[in-house]
Amino acid sequence: MYEKDPVKIFVVEDDPAYTKFLKYVLELNPDYEVQFYTSGKECLANLYKNPAVVTLDYSLPDMPGEKVLSQIRSHDPNINVIIVSAQEKIHTAVELLKLGAYDYIAKDHETKDRLLNSIHNARNRTSLIKEIDHLKKEISEKYTFEKSIIGTSPAIKRVFSLLEKAVQTNISVSITGETGTGKELVAKALHYNSKRKNKPFVAVNIAAIPRDLIESELFGHEKGAFTGAITRRIGKFEEAEGGSIFLDEIGEMDMNLQAKLLRVLQEREITRIGGNQVIKLDVRIIAATHKDLSEEVKGGRFREDLYYRLLGLPIMLPPLRERGQDAIIIAKHFLDQFAHDNGMQKFKISPEAQEKLLQYPFPGNIRELKSVIELAAVMAEEQELRPQDISFNSTTRMESFLYQEMSMQEFMYRIIRHYLNKYDNNVLEVARRLDIGKSSLYRYLKEMETIGI
C-alpha cells in the first residue's frame, strides 16, 4: 500500500559536480521524487513539503550540518536524514547518529551503493511508520464507544456515561461483571479513547498464568535471577509504559503477590526479579474480575488495602439478560460480521427467532450469543434465521434455569425433562440418575403432561 507511493527526497549539497552525480544516481529510480537545495536554510524553508528522506552534506556554507539535522528533527523526527560527508572522522559520525541521523555515508567510491541501500531501508522504515499510524487510527476508530460496545439499553448507557468520565483522567478503573459480558472490550475502549491511545495496551489474564511465573510475567527478571532465566525479561508493566495495563481476573491473584502489586501501585515503580534498578512507571491500571471483591475481602482472600487501590472508578457490566433488545442488536452485528468474514450474503433474523433469543437468559452472555449466532448461520437453509436454526448447549440450558423465576416444582419438572432428553426417554435410567422411585417418576411425568411441560 505504502510501498507504491513516490518517495520524496531532498538533496542538500553545495558542490555542483557532486549534485550532478547524486542527480544521476537517484533519478534512475522512477519511484524517487528528488528536489535539490544548495543551502541548509533553503532546505529548512521547504520542509512543509514533507520529504521522507534528506541527504545532507555535512559541510554547508551557511549552516553546520548538526544544526540543520537538529532543526529537521524538531520539525519531524520521522524524516530520515542521511549525512553525506567528505569527512571520515569516526567521532563525528557517532555524534551525528546520536543526534538522530539515520545514516552517515562518506564520499568515496562506495557512496553510490551505500546511499541507494540506505535510502531503500529508510523508505521501508517510512512505509512501516505510515502503516503503524494507519493501524493505530483504525484501532482507535474500532474502539469508539458506539462501535465497540453495542446496545441502546439504559443499562449499557450507564456504562457509556462512566466511560466518558473515566477517559478524562488517569484514575484506575475496576470492571466487574459475569463471564462473557465483555470486560476486556470495555478496557480496550477505555484505553483507545483516552490520551494514552498511542501507547501500548497490555492485557494480562492472571488466572491463565502459573502461580510461580506470574511475578516474572508482571515485573520482569534479570538474567540468572533463577533457574531458567537465561536472558533478561521485560515484564508486562514495563511493556505498558505510557499506556494501560489490563489485569483480568485480578481476584485470582494469591495473597503474596497481592502485597507486591500493592507496593507497585503505591510507589509507581518496579524492580525486576534479581535486579537492583528501580524503574519508574507511568501506567494506567484497569482491573477486572467476575468475583465480588468486597466479599473476597470479607472472606480474607483479597487484601482490603489493594482492593481500595484498584477500585478507582468502578464499572459494573450488566449481564445480557438485563439488556432487553440489546441481545437482538448484538446478534445482528455478529451475524453481519460472520457473513462478511465468510463471504456470505447478509442474513435476517425472523421475528420468531428473535423471540427465542429474547426468551433465553444467556448465562454465557455476549460470548455465548456470538457462538449461538455463528452456529445458526451455518445451520440455516435460507438467508433468514428461524427458531429451528438456533440451538443452545444442553449443559448451558440447565445452568440457565438458575436465572429463571420458577417454583421448586417447575424446576423439578424441567430437570426431569432434561434427563429424559439426555437418556432417550429411558425412564429406568432417569430414575436411577435422579435417585427417585420409578412410580414417582411416572407420577411426575403424568403431571408434566397435564400442564404441558
From TrEMBL:
Record keywords: ATP-binding, DNA-binding, Nucleotide-binding, Phosphoprotein
Task: Tell me where on the tree of life, at the top rank, the source sits.
Answer: Bacteria
> Has UniProt tagged this entry with the keyword tRNA processing?
no
List 4-aspartylphosphate occurrences by residue: 57
A Pfam family cross-referenced in the UniProt record is Response_reg
User: Might you name a Gene Ontology BP term for this protein?
Assistant: regulation of DNA-templated transcription
Residues forming the Sigma-54 factor interaction domain are: 149-378
**CDD domains according to UniProt:** AAA, REC
A GO MF annotation of the entry reads: ATP binding
**SUPFAM superfamilies recorded:** CheY-like, Homeodomain-like, P-loop containing nucleoside triphosphate hydrolases
Q: Which InterPro entries match?
A: AAA+_ATPase (IPR003593), AAA_lid_NorR (IPR058031), CheY-like_superfamily (IPR011006), Homeodomain-like_sf (IPR009057), P-loop_NTPase (IPR027417), Sig_transdc_resp-reg_receiver (IPR001789), Sigma_54_int (IPR002078), Sigma_54_int_dom_ATP-bd_2 (IPR025943)
**Where does the Response regulatory domain lie?**
8-122
Note the PANTHER family from the entry: TRANSCRIPTIONAL REGULATORY PROTEIN
Q: What is this protein called?
A: DNA-binding transcriptional response regulator, NtrC family, contains REC, AAA-type ATPase, and a Fis-type DNA-binding domains
